[in-house]
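Running this now, will post back.
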Amino acid sequence: MSIEVKVPTLPESISDATVLDWHKQPGETVRRDENILDLETDKVVLEVPAPADGVLSKVLAETGTVVKAGDTLAVIEPQAAAPAPPNTEDERPAPPPQPSDSDEPVLTPAVRRLVKELGVDPHQILGSGKDGRITKADVMKYLDAQPAAGNPDLTTVDEQEEGGATASSERREQRVPMTRLRQRIAERLKEAQNTAAILTTFNEVDLQAVTGIRQQHKAAFEERHGVKLGFMSFFVKASIEALKRFPAVNASVDGTDILYHDYFDIGIAVGSERGLVVPVLRDADQLDFAGIEKAIREYARKAREGTLSYDDLNGGTFTITNGGVYGSMLSTPILNPPQSGILGMHNITERPVVVNGEIVIRPMMYLALSYDHRIVDGREAVQFLVTIKQHLEDPGRLLLGL
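Update: finished.
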């Protein structure tokens, strides 16, 4: 009896998906729960497992097809039962060797798509991830080690003109459609600009005290908790204290109403090969420093491997983005709708500053708060950022709840 492979139930607020990549072709054997194709939504890549063992007989939705929950993607035919063993020695020929999947490289959907777009053979790449999983960094390292004469469509090709002594350069272009995630990012950012009254206020923070705490306790912290003590946990804690004092920054506009949240779900912007994603720290006010650092580390791993789920990315009441990891000195971050505030961190540089009448060298960072001026007043925005500054320059406030 034929078995249909259907589009699974999609996450709430997602109406359709695009067939991203088939990993099995008609005529190939599939195993129950084996991933046979990937679906791309506005936020994540979903794997579709085979519902039963058998042979993939038909593919009904080609790559690029837009599908909805419940649509039929393919048909699987069950395999015929194996014949009974022969009764004589002469009738027992040795069965043909079966292919083994043990040597197949372990690829996430995002990496699988990357190697396909680049035309790279994953069997040639040594995976450095967990259980031999190939990461994007592994792919790029492999490409860097290859000869320069790569894909002529992406490089400048020098051609010797017939009968001439000089070479001419042929310029080429490549047209690539936006991914669903990139399209959604564009829509949301434009929505924020068109809807919210975005304004940005700035300040600077002296991170001498935070840096001192990290240097003093980082070894013991990592030994105790199994994770490094970074800067982000301090910024998350300081932001929560500021959000408690200025609840409008933790609110959102819903029509003609203001929706105040009595919880603190902090989005942490993370760059990935598919674009910017913002996984959410749920109830971040209930996490200690170690809990925050562990959650961020796990989200970073998922982003690299392309395994973030819709639940990881859904919601959020406030966002923190760190352009400093890319060397940014100052920026005006754009709101993540429907949120009314986003904090921009930047790189830490040693600068001369005046402290108690003396010029000293301190590790300084510029901070930027973009906010929705429809519900957040300028006074609130400035005091919100000052509150973050005070808690970072005197981290004891975070421990004492001051």
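DSSP finds nine helices and 23 strands in the chain. More later if anyone needs it.
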